[in-house]
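Hi there,

I know you've been waiting on this one. I reran it after we fixed the sequence typo, so this is the corrected version. Both the input and the resulting structure follow.
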Amino acid sequence: MKIEFAMRAFIVYFLMFLGISYGLFAQTKQEVSGYVTSFGTPVVHAKVAVVGTDLMTATDSKGYYTIEVTPRQELQFSYVGLQTVTIIIEDVTKTLNVKMLPEVNDLDEVTVKEKVKKIEAFSDELGEDGKPIWMPTSMGPIFTQNGSTSYVKGKDLNLAARDLTIALGGRVMLRKSATISLPEVMLWDVDGNQFYPTNYDIRDVLPQVSEVYDVMVLRSLSLTNRYGSRARNGVVVVRTKGAYFAQRKEKVNKTYGNQQVYSDDAIAMESLITVTPDYLKELENSNTPEEAFTIYKEALVTNARDVAFYADVAQYFYDKKATDKAHSVLSEMETAFVTNAEALKVLAYTYEANADREKALSVYKKIFRLRPQYVQSYRDLGNSFAAAENYQKAWLMYMGYMNTTDSLSGTGIDAIVYREMEALYFQHKDKIDADAKFSLPENKSELAYDVRLVFEWNTSEAEFELEFVNPQNQPYVVNHTLEQNPERIRDEKLKGYTSEEFLIDDLGSGDWLVNLKYFGNKQFQPTFLKVTTYYNWQQPNQKQKVELFKLTRQNIKMQLLKLNNRNLRY
């Protein structure tokens, strides 16, 4: 209780310093309802309970339930033979449609060694930087000269260190943010065996320091794409002396080996068959912006609580260069959803996609007042201040974020905030009063990438799958679903963020594809996804593009973006 009071006191003081009004909103019970199904069939008499309390109910003959719950509490859905589902409730949660899956008992998962592959052949060939040109990994040889890597010989490690993670400290840069070096959150590839920390201490499964021949850290998406979503924080490749000497005489295999190949199964967004709402059909048939605005007003009577309605109509007016009418629509949207943070995010995204930065800033201030305990609020407001060229207030928001967290873990939104702090510092340090305690790399070139992608979505319940395909036609898939990535979803809910970034340090020649498969959001409303593409990140010719996607079609792989090095030039 004392900690909570201290945090609120800090927030109030901090916002007063920024000139932002603040009110403390009491958390009250809210009604949550929805349907529980399994493969499209209603789950009758499923138990729905508020974790840590005696409150519970059961689904009826249609699989429907309703229950009162307080934000930040957890709802648990259980039924014999089906996997239990636990969901953290948020301030805007009203509808929660839950899909349950059969319970699976995997008796084989009794070891921490999660994936084993025969390690590929070793090469003695070194590049000019002293690194091996090809690094053998569990996913085949990886060409290391066109990506972001750190390399160290085993003999140069601190042999007196009690474990390998400590021995690596100061010898390799585990992340590009120099003050963040937490190897326990990275994927480890040791002699062809993959280890990822889950419920065990990674140090227990690593070799002794004296047994290590060399170590290479892979950080870039272009290097880690073959490992999948677990490699989002980078991969530490370790070769022991035994593996090295066993492989020296083998011929180097400079192929990708048994890698997946992209099946070219994504549908271009413009080719998707979608149902156009009646109000958009009527708008398209209008002859003037004034006539279209009259149609909007008539449609407003039946669509006043539809977030997508306002976003669609506003974008129509933006596209027709009728900005004043777009602003009128969005102003009415703000009034209609003044206490709904998820709807206000859509409003802010729409402003940003149309370069209305000052209006977006005003909305992010409102969201902050509604959700001061959400770390996303600090990042969004800080980023919005920076976009509006108020760099000092942006810096203060980022510092406020740091004060709300125990540490910057290097995962999730922590990585996003830290990278944006780096950018703000190096690009505008003459316009900010930076904290002397804040440590940054001296060499800005270490922070540069060809492309930085930031994905943001308006609702925490959104589930989807992202697929990145490199020019060699190799896919890299990231799952953002409760089933496949429950730890990540829980972290997002507990901290309060809905965003992720991906980095490509070398686009190379050819096209990178970014595809998405949407699985829904447990509601009856669409999800809005904002994608910001930064080209030449942390370089003098940096530029960016903001795009907003309305996600409605489920279980269809859509091509969102196509990236190539032509975009690196003006």
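Quick highlight: The chain is about 30% helix and 25% strand.

Best,
R. S.
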